[in-house]
Design a protein that fits this description.
Elements (H helix, E strand, L loop, with lengths): L1 E11 L3 E4 L13 E2 H7 L4 E2 L2 E2 L2 H22 L5 E7 L2 E5 L5 E4 L6 E3 H4 L8 E4 L1 H13 L4 H4 L3 E4 L4 E13 L10 H4 L6 H10 L19 E6 L5 H14 L3 H5 L3 H13 L3 E5 L6 H4 L1 E7 L10 E7 L1 H11 L18 E6 L6 H5 L2 H4 L14 E2 L6 E2 L5 E8 L10 H6 L1 E4 L4 H6 L4 E2 L2 E2 H15 L20 H19 L4 H7 L13 E5 L2 H4 L11 E5 L7 H5 L3
Parallel strand pairs: 13-20, 13-21, 14-17, 17-20
Antiparallel strand pairs: 1-12, 2-3, 2-11, 4-5, 6-7, 6-10, 7-8, 8-9, 15-16, 18-19, 22-23, 24-25
Helix pairs in contact: 1-2, 8-10
GO molecular function: ATP binding; ATP hydrolysis activity
InterPro entries: ATPase_dyneun-rel_AAA, Methyl-DNA_Rec/Restrict_Enz, P-loop_NTPase
Protein name: ATPase dynein-related AAA domain-containing protein
């Protein structure tokens, strides 16, 4: 197979915007050219075999300026996106309330959602919000451009993650193997199921997502996966999305476009149906709670006599879950290999998976959870359990979904056998989530920029696994007040920093920018010189701290304190 060869230079998680330039052709209203492409074709004498006219050159130059304006606004997090629909060669974009739309035409007029009947359109698109489009138009006007006309020619590619590739001079590379005749990579990798491929590209350029190569072209979710990242990055939120997506065989992109309450209701319904189960690992959690063990039972709870005490075999939560799945098929199938691969998916969620002793909890199960060793897999395997002597195997339609907090324990410290058998999906702080929620400013404080600055400093002073998650600030959507922001910092952010830096307040000052603030009234952490002679008599021959630190509560209620962080 022959393919282009190049280097991935950037991965971004917002829609890729371009400009509708037709050059007298391409009547499709959704057709677009990326702004970077326009910068190249304007250097040519002709495009698609047709020479450029003076009008063409003028339009292309304006499009290039439009692209630069958008790039600058994106850099400053001043553009956010809303769900969009393409119907009858027209674009309809949701308003902030998501219950009404506006049309991408002169004046951006509002329109009733029911009037255009877009509710059943499943293809997911995003376009800049009305506020963002007006912001682009206003900026264009400052540069002498007709912004109102230019924004009507904005277009997007529908997806949620994109890559930029710099093509090498050696354009083609021969790869081993070949696709079957008539089969394209678009058939191998469906449009809405490209997460694994994106993650593989990230892994190869150093943005580690730990997606194994063998999973790259799978059309299904991995059987075993762990969502990991710093505190507050939405792992619990995404667990609900992943569990529902697996059970309902739905794409994450489609679920993300729905109100979270709707997805959560479906999650609770699946739990009641027994298709989703949940447990949390901790230091004292063991094999007996997870698979099976022996537990004491008192016949009469009101009788203190020890003669009524007996011991019974008890199934653990995961064994019960798997046995329930197998019981539904026992009357239909007797041979392990006869179990169909199309069984209804079920999800077993393990929260805080890194807090447990993996070898102690999983035992021999660590082999049975491999996709090929599942009942119904390529090499179905069972084991004899140590207490009951029962034969036990893991059904092929059971998915394991774990979460782990990297601030508690690094992924590198996890049991190696577990790491080999799980796909790891990284959840890092994402300020774009705040922008999409409309959390832009709180009394002049740019929330996203502030969080980015804090995390850059934490990465420099500590590591990326201890950065601050965006979900700490999501409550600002309902209550965008300075009082709420102060509560977030005092009750969550500062205690987290104290834990990270073991109360090394000088580093906390660096993270919060206090070291560079001229006015002490704006400092979250105050430092005062210690005069040793005033504290101790004589000349103590020990190392003593030169400063003492105090938290200044008044600073948390001053907007200028936050502005001076960035």
């Amino acid at each position: 197979m022959i393919t282009h060869r190049g280097t991935v230079t950037e991965i971004f998680e917002h829609p890729a915007m371009g400009y509708r330039y037709t050059h007298g052709r391409n009547p499709d209203a959704s057709f677009m050219l990326p702004f970077e492409f326009i910068e190249e074709i304007i250097k040519l004498d002709a495009y698609l075999g047709k020479p450029f006219t003076t009008e063409n050159i003028t339009e292309l130059k304006q499009a290039i300026e439009l692209g630069k304006i958008i790039k600058e606004l994106m850099k400053n997090n001043e553009i956010h996106f809303k769900r969009a629909y393409f119907k009858d060669n027209q674009y309809f974009i949701e308003n902030e309330d998501s219950n009404s739309l506006f049309k991408l035409e002169d004046g951006l007029p509002n329109i009733n959602k029911g009037d255009v009947k877009v509710r059943n359109i499943r293809t997911y698109r995003e376009m800049p919000s009305k506020e963002s489009l007006n912001k682009i138009a206003k900026k264009c006007k400052e540069y002498g451009l007709d912004g109102q006309a230019l924004i009507l020619k904005l277009r997007i590619w529908r997806e949620k993650e994109f890559i930029k590739v710099k093509i090498d001079e050696e354009m083609f590379q021969e790869l081993e193997g070949r696709l079957q005749e008539g089969v394209s990579t678009r058939l191998i990798l469906k449009e809405d199921e490209s997460d694994n491929l994106i993650n593989e590209i990230k892994r190869n350029i150093g943005i580690t997502n730990h997606i194994p190569r063998k999973e790259v072209f799978s059309l299904e979710f991995p059987k075993n996966q762990i969502l990991y990242g710093p505190p507050g990055t939405g792992k619990t939120y995404n667990t609900v999305l992943y569990a529902v997506a697996i059970c309902d065989k739905e794409s994450l992109a489609n679920l993300e476009s729905l109100p979270y309450k709707q997805v959560l209701d479906r999650y609770e319904q699946l739990k009641k149906e027994g298709r989703i189960a949940f447990t949390t690992f901790h230091q004292s959690y063991g094999y007996e709670e997870f698979i099976e063990g022996i537990k004491p039972v008192i016949k009469s709870p009101n009788d203190d006599s020890m003669s009524d005490l007996r011991y019974v075999y008890a199934d653990g939560v995961f064994k019960k879950f798997c046995e329930q799945v197998k019981e539904e098929k026992d009357n239909e199938y007797t041979n392990l290999t006869d179990v169909p691969r199309t069984d209804v998916p079920r999800v077993f969620i393990i929260d805080e998976i890194n807090r447990g002793n993996i070898s102690k909890i999983f035992g021999e199960l660590i082999t049975l959870i491999e996709p090929t060793k599942r009942i119904g897999g390529a090499e179905p395997t069972t084991t004899t359990l140590p207490y009951t002597g029962d034969k036990f195997g893991v059904p092929n339609n059971v998915y394991l979904l774990g979460t782990m907090n990297t601030a508690d324990r690094s992924i590198a410290l996890l049991d190696t056998a577990l790491r080999r058998r799980f796909t790891f999906i990284e959840m890092m702080p994402n300020v774009n989530v705040l922008t999409k929620l409309g959390i832009i400013e709180v009394e002049g404080v740019q929330v996203a920029k502030m969080l980015e600055t804090i995390n850059e400093r934490i990465e420099s002073l500590f590591d990326r696994e201890h950065t601050i998650g965006h979900s700490y600030f999501t409550s600002l959507k309902k209550d965008p007040s300075l009082m709420n922001l102060a509560g977030i910092f005092m009750n969550s952010i500062v205690p987290l920093l104290q834990e990270y830096f073991y109360e090394d307040y000088s580093k906390i000052q660096f993270v919060l920018g206090d070291n560079a603030k001229a006015d002490r009234a704006h400092k979250f952490v105050l430092d005062t010189d210690i005069k040793v002679k005033n504290v101790f008599k004589g000349n103590p021959d020990i190392d003593l701290p030169e400063k003492k630190y105090t938290i200044q509560k008044a600073a948390f209620y001053n907007a200028e304190s936050y502005k001076q962080i960035y």
